């Protein structure tokens, strides 16, 4: 499919600003209401105490709290670049349990190396070490690990497993990935986009592929207020979860941003700043591969000869691992367009940020707060 340029509306007039502020007071969803109230309270201090909080979805955090997590990640990355993390050990004496039902490269390595850099001790638990809900019930596992560890990061199949762990844990539970949400990856995407464009506000994000995907759900959880406009192109039968879409539409109305769900990839990427895709065959769904590849025909991200692109500075992201049917080599390996490698490396700084914030209430960034 082709990418075509499109101009977007200019900055808001004073009247539009008043209308937008007024919208924030009209809240229907309890989850949205809680989030808006938290955002207002946090903005007065510019720093929220997140110690002891679970990190299951971005929906549970306000706009300002997510900005705080991004600020922390940026600060930790800057400290490391200046060799100042070698003597900075805010989590010394802390331990982290790492439950991995699903195998991983980025999540495991980024978490283990990052937590070690902060002075903590990570403990990896494979499916052979922890049989969630099999040899021991989820509530019992949560209670046992709460006595050994200061936090638990879990990479699981069912999101309900995370919910059960959080209900029975006395320490923070961090979502390393579930079939429903992947919030650590979206934080890394936000940080990567900020580093590339110098801002997040107003960017147009186009996701092409499986709409019923943990990446699309995580993006919809916070992308509309935090990162701007979102368009999702997916084939029939692969739409995002209706409950997630309902909350996202409410956020879109509140923040005056654009949410588009379409069957046409060309419509989604027209005028986009960031083009994103993910696997067409998720882990655990290998038996569906043949049918899925047929359903996703025409959704490969590729360039068309003579076709105009999205915005002049458009970039490509993918949370990895990548398959040929999802994006062509000329985009994936294009050093000017593809941000997949810095995106993957930023997973380290965002998971460090989350763990530091939920375990330590004394930390304050050394760098000035960015304007996201």
UniProtKB/TrEMBL annotation:
<dbReference type="InterPro" id="IPR006131">
    <property type="entry name" value="Asp_carbamoyltransf_Asp/Orn-bd"/>
</dbReference>
<feature type="domain" description="Aspartate/ornithine carbamoyltransferase carbamoyl-P binding">
    <location>
        <begin position="53"/>
        <end position="195"/>
    </location>
</feature>
<dbReference type="GO" id="GO:0004585">
    <property type="term" value="F:ornithine carbamoyltransferase activity"/>
</dbReference>
<comment type="subunit">
    <text>Homotrimer.</text>
</comment>
<dbReference type="GO" id="GO:0019240">
    <property type="term" value="P:citrulline biosynthetic process"/>
</dbReference>
<dbReference type="GO" id="GO:0042450">
    <property type="term" value="P:L-arginine biosynthetic process via ornithine"/>
</dbReference>
<dbReference type="InterPro" id="IPR036901">
    <property type="entry name" value="Asp/Orn_carbamoylTrfase_sf"/>
</dbReference>
<protein>
    <recommendedName>
        <fullName>ornithine carbamoyltransferase</fullName>
        <ecNumber>2.1.3.3</ecNumber>
    </recommendedName>
</protein>
<dbReference type="GO" id="GO:0016597">
    <property type="term" value="F:amino acid binding"/>
</dbReference>
<dbReference type="Pfam" id="PF00185">
    <property type="entry name" value="OTCace"/>
</dbReference>
<keyword id="KW-0808">Transferase</keyword>
<comment type="pathway">
    <text>Nitrogen metabolism; urea cycle; L-citrulline from L-ornithine and carbamoyl phosphate: step 1/1.</text>
</comment>
<dbReference type="InterPro" id="IPR002292">
    <property type="entry name" value="Orn/put_carbamltrans"/>
</dbReference>
<dbReference type="InterPro" id="IPR006132">
    <property type="entry name" value="Asp/Orn_carbamoyltranf_P-bd"/>
</dbReference>
<dbReference type="Pfam" id="PF02729">
    <property type="entry name" value="OTCace_N"/>
</dbReference>
<dbReference type="GO" id="GO:0005739">
    <property type="term" value="C:mitochondrion"/>
</dbReference>
<dbReference type="GO" id="GO:0000050">
    <property type="term" value="P:urea cycle"/>
</dbReference>
<comment type="similarity">
    <text>Belongs to the aspartate/ornithine carbamoyltransferase superfamily. OTCase family.</text>
</comment>
<feature type="domain" description="Aspartate/ornithine carbamoyltransferase Asp/Orn-binding">
    <location>
        <begin position="202"/>
        <end position="356"/>
    </location>
</feature>
<dbReference type="InterPro" id="IPR006130">
    <property type="entry name" value="Asp/Orn_carbamoylTrfase"/>
</dbReference>
């Amino acid at each position: 499919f082709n990418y075509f340029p499109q101009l977007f509306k200019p900055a808001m007039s004073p009247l539009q600003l008043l209308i937008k502020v007024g919208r924030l007071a009209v809240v229907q969803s309890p989850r949205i209401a809680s989030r808006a109230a938290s955002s207002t309270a946090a903005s007065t201090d510019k720093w929220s105490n997140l110690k002891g909080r679970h990190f299951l979805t971005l929906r549970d955090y306000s706009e300002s709290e997510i900005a705080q997590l991004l600020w922390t990640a940026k600060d930790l990355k800057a400290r490391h670049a200046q060799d100042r993390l070698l003597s900075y050990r805010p989590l010394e004496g802390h331990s982290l349990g790492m439950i991995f039902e699903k195998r991983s490269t980025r999540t495991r390595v980024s978490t283990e190396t990052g937590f070690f850099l902060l002075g903590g001790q990570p403990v990896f638990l494979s499916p052979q070490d922890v049989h969630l809900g099999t040899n021991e019930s989820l509530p019992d596992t949560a209670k046992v690990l709460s006595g050994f560890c200061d936090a638990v990061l879990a990479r699981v199949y069912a999101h309900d497993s995370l919910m059960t762990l959080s209900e029975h844990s006395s320490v923070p539970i961090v979502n390393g990935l579930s079939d429903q949400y992947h919030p650590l990856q979206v934080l890394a995407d936000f940080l990567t986009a900020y580093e590339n464009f110098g801002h997040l506000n107003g960017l147009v994000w186009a996701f092409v592929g499986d709409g019923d995907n943990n990446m699309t759900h995580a993006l919809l959880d916070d992308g509309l207020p935090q990162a701007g406009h979102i368009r999702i192109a997916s084939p029939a039968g692969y739409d995002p979860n209706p409950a997630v879409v309902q909350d996202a539409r409410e956020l879109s109305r509140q923040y005056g941003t654009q949410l588009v769900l379409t069957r046409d990839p060309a419509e989604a990427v027209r005028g986009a700043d960031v083009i994103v895709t993910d696997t067409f065959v998720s882990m655990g769904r290998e038996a569906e591969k043949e049918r899925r590849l047929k359903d996703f025909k025409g959704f490969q991200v590729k360039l068309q000869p003579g076709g105009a692109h999205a915005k002049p500075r458009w970039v490509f992201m993918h949370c990895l691992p990548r398959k040929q049917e999802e994006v062509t080599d000329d985009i994936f390996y294009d050093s000017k367009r593809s941000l997949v490698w810095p995106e993957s490396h930023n997973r380290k700084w965002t998971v460090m940020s989350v763990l530091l914030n939920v375990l330590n209430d004394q930390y304050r960034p050394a760098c000035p707060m960015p304007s996201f």
